[in-house]
Amino acid sequence: MKNLSLKSTTLATLLATTLSLVGTAAADPVELKIATLAPAGSPWMEVLGKASEEISKKTEKRVTLKYFEGGQMGDERDFVRKITGHQIDGAAVTAVGLSMIDESIRVLELPMMFASAEEMDFVADKVWPYFQKKFEGKGFRLNDRGEVGWIYFLSKNKVEKIADLKGQKLCSKVKYMTSMPMSFAIGATIVSLDSLKKISVDDQKAVEDIGKSNAKKLRKTIRKANEEAKGTMSRKGVTVVPTPIAMVEDFTKQSQELWQSLVGKIYSKEELAMVLKYRDEYRAKNGGPKPAGTPEGIKKPDTKTPEVKKPDKK
Q: What is the pTM for the complete model shown?
């Protein structure tokens, strides 16, 4: 009985010590190192900074975020490599960084896919959980989306038809901008799942909720900043060129051909069909597309959903 009592006491002590150590490990503060190209003092960093403060307060400093802004950690390709190499925990990236993990997400950036930011929001909200699951399968948490915004043609010479784009130099002094936006560029913060394992489930939930709330604020901030930038460009002498009907129609036709050509190369037939399905659902509910940035009087491009073709078998 004496030996049994001694063994029981030893087991109880060992169990108590183990639980104590587990409790201590869970309480240890975790600092997540996040890289971004956004410069210090920018509207982007203001929103991200406030989110960081909110996370620190909500978790009672068990979780803190340290941002390396302004490209201190290199470019987005460097960010992803350093996350994989456990040098940093995450990064706020555009589709360039996202596509290094899973390029199929670029189906949301196809030219002439969306006619308004609201349309894009509707579709992205529907498909985002699908892409989050894909990213988790590759070891990353894909947080709620950010964005870059509308992409326009900027040129030294006036562009009034597709042929005018030939020979334009991207680095020349910008004098003109087409009123027709080409595509909508996305972004998001990614975090290594290995890094998140250091954080308790409750704190992970707090970080996720705060991140989602601030992602909406960030999108609003970015859209406001983009509109202000367009005003600044206009005051600096950049002329917004009304997009001729023929160019809209020509570019839309060529874009839809591009969508099909990328099936099986960047995204699947099902992924393209999924985006088109939700886009058309939004249009059916809201009376068709509302052109984004195109001037009054321009004929709307063909909005009929093209048939999604199967990739050619080689």
A: 0.77
Residue 117: phi and psi, rounded to 5, are -65, -35
Q: What is the DSSP letter of 86?
A: T
Q: Which residues contact 107 (CB under 8 A, 6 or more apart)?
A: 266, 267, 271, 272, 275
* pLDDT beneath 70: ranges in the chain: 1-27, 153-171, 173-174, 290-314
With both helix axes pointing from N to C terminus, report the angle between 43-58 and 201-235 in degrees, rounded to the nearest 10: 160
Task: Name the CA dihedral angle for 47, 50, 56, 58, rounded to a multiple of 10 degrees.
Answer: -100
Q: 3-class SS at 273?
A: helix
DSSP letters for 197-218: TTS-HHHHHHHHHHHHHHHHHH
Architecture of domain 2-149+182-239: 3-Layer(aba) Sandwich (3.40)
Which residues fall within 8 angstroms of residue 62, CB to CB, at 6 or more apart?
27, 29, 30, 199, 200, 203
* The pairing of beta strand 183-192 with beta strand 154-155: unpaired
Enumerate the domain spans of the chain.
2-149+182-239
- Which of 133, 140, 137, 110 has its CA nearest to residue 123? 110
Torsion sign over Cα 259, 264, 265, 267 = positive
Q: DSSP code of 114?
A: -
pLDDT at 308: 58
Q: What is the pLDDT of residues 158-185, one digit of tens each?
A: 545 545 555 555 448 667 777 788 899 9
Q: Is residue 165 within 8 Å of residue 159, measured between CB atoms?
A: yes
Q: What is the pLDDT of residues 95-134, one digit of tens each?
A: 999 999 999 999 999 999 999 999 999 999 999 999 999 9
User: 248-257: buried (b, 16+ CB within 10 Å) or exposed (e) per residue?
Assistant: beebbeebbe
